[in-house]
Amino acid sequence: MKLLVLNGPNLNFLGIREKGIYGNQDYAYLIERLQKKAEAEGHELEVFQSNYEGGLIDKIQEAYYTGVEGIIINPGAFTHYSYALRDALASVEIPKIEVHISNVHKREEFRHVSVTAPVCTGQVVGLGLKGYELAMDYLTEKK
Ligand code: DQA
Question: Is 59 in the pocket of ligand 1 (CB under 6 A)?
Fold first, then answer.
């Protein structure tokens, strides 16, 4: 399968930012782990991170043209307020899983709202970096 992992703002700062919440492993570690898993299972995986809303939207639109079959997205803080990102996700009929490393429901109230989750297939929350792998398993398993 052709898969796309999208990470939003500040996720490139994994291992640097708020380690008590997001852990000690850095962004490079996450990407390597996902690439290895995809390779072992025979999937083609593209990974993209942007601190800019438009960068993520461009990538979602590009996925439409390039035949991406599954999207795993951690929109970071855009989750909570980006209607533009939500509209981009809603525009493509590709299965999409929203991932959050932390349990957003245990945190500040503004994190309890996701404007993007209603246009995703499902959501994995609070299971650390493992959440990305679980999302990949869901997208690639034969249903
Ligand atoms: C996050 C949760 C968001 O509230 C936060 O803004 C992030 C990371 C997570 O993975 O837990 O940047 O999406």
Answer: no
Query: In the prediction, which pLDDT does 67 show?
Result: 97
Whether ligand 1 lies within 6 angstroms of the CB of 79 is answered as: yes
Residue range 112-124: average pLDDT?
Answer: 98
Per-residue pLDDT tens over the stretch 24-61: 999 999 999 999 999 999 999 999 999 999 999 999 99
Per DSSP, the residues of 13-69 read GTTTS-HHHH-S--HHHHHHHHHHHHHHTT-EEEEEE-SSHHHHHHHHHHHHHHT--
Backbone angles phi, psi at 99, to 5 degrees: -120, 135
